[in-house]
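Submission sheet (multi-component)
Chains listed below:
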Amino acid sequence: MRDIVGPMQRTPLHDKHVELGGRMVEFAGFEMPLHYQGGINHEHLAVRGGAGLFDVSHMGEIRVVGPEATSFMQYATLNDPGRLKVGRGQYNMLPNDRGGLVDDLYVYREADDDYLVVANAANTVAVFDHLKRLVDGREAHVLNESDRWSLLALQGPNSALILGRLLSDDLTDLKRNATLSAQLSGVPIKVSRTGYTGEDGFEIFCRPIDAAAVWDVLAAAGVTPCGLGSRDTLRLEAGFPLFGHELDESTNPLCTDFAWVVKDKPFHGREAMWQPSCRRRLAGVRMTERGIPRLGYKVVSEAGDTIGEVSSGTLSPLTRECIGFAWVDAEHAAEGAAVCVEIRGRPVPAEIVKPPFYKS
Amino acid sequence: MNTPEELRYAKSHEWTRIEGDGSVTIGITDYAQDQLGDVVFVELPAVGSNVEQGEQVAVIESVKTASDIYAPVAGEITAINNDLDAKPETINESPYEAGWLFKLVPVNAAELDALLDAASYLGSVAEE
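Outcome: structure written.
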């Protein structure tokens, strides 16, 4: 936990988090709740067993719009947003020109020539600056709309039932990655069937002035407020990467199980990224003896040589296994390989596994 | 935040209870367990080992982080709380009673006297 220093940004739900007894911490320049009174484990289990509610308003929203928006998005990102139907979204990544990444993000196609990009909070400015630079000379505009949106994530097996009851619209036919516009207690919202937990769930976009009202309606329906701590344990269990840990400016997605995002087409930085020999690969790690792998811990071979580094790790509140991700030398990264993680100077046995660590 | 008056404290958030037989029982404070979050593992010292004041003798690992625990006074470790192996969350639930960490026989009475009382400990926490 870092000390809170300097002026931090707050989301419109800040007072609610404090009212609910949130343990407030700094994250990407925002003051956010790590967890509430129940604790990280409790919140994690609430999402897996029922429904949890996250304030993710700190994330960034960037609009790319104009006659050349589609060709630009096809060039600027690794996946194929141009193949999306209007009203659909996709997981995507923004390449830099050095064979690495600016961010991983979601892209929604709101109209033929109108895309909404949702970026990690820590990278909003970098993503905006990058896209603005890259769009130069094209008939398209890049607009930072982060101040115009609040975002809440409702996640868990009960979320469709709960949200469906509250909306004027039926959710049964809303497919994963699809969006719809609706009214929630008279408040206009946009809902996408997406999430970062591995459960069914919905991300709810609304105006910042309406965020508190949306939160209240969902909380009154019995949803458990959840903080960033459980957001991290849930995504890890579900096998999702976190930018700044599994992915960064120097990582090549072709060396991970997310290589499917990279499409065979012209894109910014392709020459630097395409078909590298991967010195290291991103692998899942499951400890076979007690110990929590953490960011920066060395992965060592049974012979004692350093063969990798942990990028994320935790003790799963659900399965009670100690799990994580690590970048491991390609020749040692095979599924089932026996390795060790150096924890406080001691090599603790583990094995390489293929995420996810849990499936809903 | 619960900080019992009858105990003595170190700035590093260990509490010390002086038992009738002259030994001391040591654990971490309510403030410390709250900061740590859900405890998942505890590494305790070996019974019979001799420790110096301020020496790192245990590790408490929570979901969030691992925290070093220091001996508030020097002495010989005479007992460790084996129940914490199966139920580490006892430290969160009962930091001053069932969640005790280890006991030792102190070798220096002056070190015991120099420990903080509840008010002084709370003062040092406020300055953190």
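Remark: Chain B has five helices and nine strands.
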